[in-house]
């Protein structure tokens, strides 16, 4: 189990929240719970906005599939609710949240980026995409609704079914990110954007954000209980667990 640490730095009233978890900022139960708590602390701390970023060349590679493979159905039962709650803690944050996508944002990493109000992507080899179906598992409802909100319904089916990952020019063209900038500038630019958004009166910003997100929150509230139960069943099935094991053995074996 990778040691998780989420660092919060104050950049003139903007909280820069840096994900630090193993080599790829993968999402496991404890890390998801920590992210939810950290964002609560940031909200209570009176920050005017948030920048969410990763470390090294990876924003987040998504779900820690090794933990899923090793933990099986018992682990998945605790993990999936924590994963959805972490996504919703970003999506539901009332103030401005800007993703400084410093590197690859894959699967759950792309959902985290989609949950932010704006996305700044580092130029270069960074890829963004949602690969869940290639692994053999469906999306939790909260993740899919956040993707629908962030990336738009028109492109979502193509992203989900094909599972392709996109380099910065295509990510910008498809509307997966708002800007592409030099890798060394990605956090500074995200702070600049967050600071600009934070000039809007906080109550007005929060209300408008809630209005924009309302259809997605309403669908999650109405359908999450039943859908989560079905997604848990599908993730925990022998077929899915075998597919995850095969994916880890085939794709991740050399990834450290």
UniProtKB/TrEMBL annotation:
The keyword Lipid metabolism applies. InterPro entries: ClpP/crotonase-like_dom_sf, Enoyl-CoA_hydra/iso. It holds the Pfam family ECH_1. The keyword Ligase does not apply. Keywords: Lipid metabolism, Lyase. Belongs to the enoyl-CoA hydratase/isomerase family. This is Enoyl-CoA hydratase.
């Amino acid at each position: 189990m990778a040691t998780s640490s989420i660092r919060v730095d104050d950049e003139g009233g903007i909280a820069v929240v840096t994900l630090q978890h193993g080599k790829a900022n993968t999402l496991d139960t404890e890390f998801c719970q920590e992210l939810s708590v950290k964002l609560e602390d940031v909200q209570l701390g009176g920050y005017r906005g948030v920048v969410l970023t990763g470390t090294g060349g990876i924003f987040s590679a998504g779900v820690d599939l090794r933990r899923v493979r090793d933990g099986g159905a018992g682990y998945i039962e605790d993990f999936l609710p924590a994963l959805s709650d972490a996504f919703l803690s970003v999506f539901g944050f009332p103030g401005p949240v800007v993703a400084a996508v410093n590197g690859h944002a894959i699967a759950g990493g792309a959902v985290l980026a989609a949950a932010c109000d704006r996305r700044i992507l580092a130029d270069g080899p960074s890829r963004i995409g949602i690969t869940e179906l290639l692994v053999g598992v469906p999306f939790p409802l909260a993740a899919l609704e956040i993707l629908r909100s962030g990336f738009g319904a028109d492109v979502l089916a193509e992203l989900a079914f094909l599972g392709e990952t996109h380099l910065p020019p295509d990510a910008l063209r498809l509307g997966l990110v708002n800007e592409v900038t030099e890798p060394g500038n990605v956090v500074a630019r995200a702070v600049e954007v967050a600071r600009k958004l934070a000039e809007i009166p906080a109550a007005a910003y929060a209300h408008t954000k809630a209005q924009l997100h309302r259809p997605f929150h309403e669908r999650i509230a109405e359908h999450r209980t039943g859908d989560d139960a079905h997604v848990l069943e599908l993730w925990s099935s022998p077929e899915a667990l075998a597919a995850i094991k095969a994916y880890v053995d085939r794709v991740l074996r050399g990834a450290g």
